[in-house]
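Re: beginner question about structure tokens

> Can someone show what the tokenized structure looks like for a real chain? I only ever see the sequence side.

Sure, here's an example I had lying around. Input first:
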Amino acid sequence: MILFLLSYLGGVLTILSPCILPVLPFVFARSDQPFLRSGLPLLLGMAVAFAAIASLATLGGNWVVQANQTGRIAAMALLALFGLTLLLPSLAERLTRPLVALGGRLSKNADSGMGGSLLLGVATGLLWAPCAGPILGLILTGAAINGASASTTLLLLAYAAGAATSLAAALLVGGRLFAAMKRSLGAGEWVRRGLGALVLVGVAAIALGLDTGLLAQLSQAQTAGLEQALLNRANMGRQTQSVAVAGSDLPVEGMMPPLDGATRWLNSPALTREQLHGKVVLVDFWTYSCINCIRALPYVRAWAEKYKSQGLVVIGMHTPEFAFEKTEANVRRAMADLGVTWPVAQDNDFKVWKAFNNQYWPAHYFIDAQGRIRHHHFGEGEYDRSEKVIQKLLAEAGRSNVPGGVVAPQAGGAQAAPDFAGVKSPETYVGYNRGANFAAKPFPVKHDAAADYETPAALTLNQWGLTGRWSIGPEMSRLEKAGGRISFRFQARDLHLVLGPGPGGKPVRFRITLDGAVPGAAHGMDADAAGTGTVTRERLYQLVRQSGPQRPRTFQIEFVDPGVQAFAFTFG
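And the corresponding structure tokens:
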């Protein structure tokens, strides 16, 4: 129920986001009509259509993509025709006979009946592309991990219902405003024509991709903070609903679930919940291409070493985000590179993830000697607090001489602590399932098929694009011809890109530039000062590591050889 409430509230907050601007004209065009017969059917149609299309999109099938693109084109044509009937009724009458009949029926139904408004609402739902803030991102990430389900559809419907609620409030207020204007100014026809012009402007904005480009970027600072605050309160609520423990500020959040869903154990025989009874346990959900997980590893390593003699057991629960992270050889190689020496369970089927009801990488669960979850932390940070929890649980378990103080690991490379103050760029996926801010042409992109792309020379902050012949898949883009490039306008100290080599593991050479020049001292650990490097296996590559105050810069990577796979950008 908390997730449904959060989804609804996330939808309500979209009214504060510029991403809602392109659909407002379609909604306010009904402001002079009775709400129950006109506005409400329109909003219901919008909510249901959005939830249905978004649910189908989580299936990732190309037929769904093509159907959605066809539906968007038809919706734009329908709403453009509606705008013309509002703006120029005399012109609509002079159109060819089929269009006159359709336009007349549309105008008549929209003015007096529920059917026309419902149809307009469905068209609006096909076009609406809300900004993917933390709450909508959580829903879509869950769908990508767990697959499409009735729960996903209901969450999307709750999100759309929230947006419809805030739009309904705006529509009711707007209706009264327009009615007052008509009475005081006698400007009913001009108001109608003005609304028609706004509808056409909205259609043009959507056709130009402003709803998923510029407006999406403007929206990030508008609602992300509010949505994240809601998520944080929900996580706090998870603790306040727990059972208190006498003499301790660490409540019982639940019992540790079984670990038998793990598909394989590395660095250790399989561990069971029963075997771990009497031990203090830290379960770390991670995956090896996740930069946030990588940056948390120095602390996990330091805790494992510092408290091993006191009986602390650290378990790395490796739950993959990308398909290549399911391969045992890849995980073993990454563990060796990252210095992971504690037991690691491969949770390829997400069974342990679901048993913990987890939703984040990284996620740390602290379990006492009685097998009870006493604390959790999601994401990076609060390491001192987490270590104090370990110390308290060890003391509760009767361990004597528990070391005090907190660790301060000095890590380098990708494991170095981030500079969050300078980060203005979000994690960005290069596949179509969760891609955003794509600026190259053609747009919309072709799914699961090779196409020639071209990125404009000037990108705004957080826009990115492909140049050359690429095939864009659900979780990555693959270069079909040598010489292809990826460009990204970013602001952060570090830039990372998850990459994979060509077919059969064939290495792919690359060279990078910053603002058109070689990176020099700003190169990352996987590129040299001249900007050259090689993709040899599927992992996260640190390509840029800057110093000093950060500013927007244009990153470009060109691949000398074909076949490279690009998955996601991360920053720090």
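Each token stands for a local structural state, so reading them left to right follows the chain. The CA atoms of residues 19 and 215 lie 5 Å apart.
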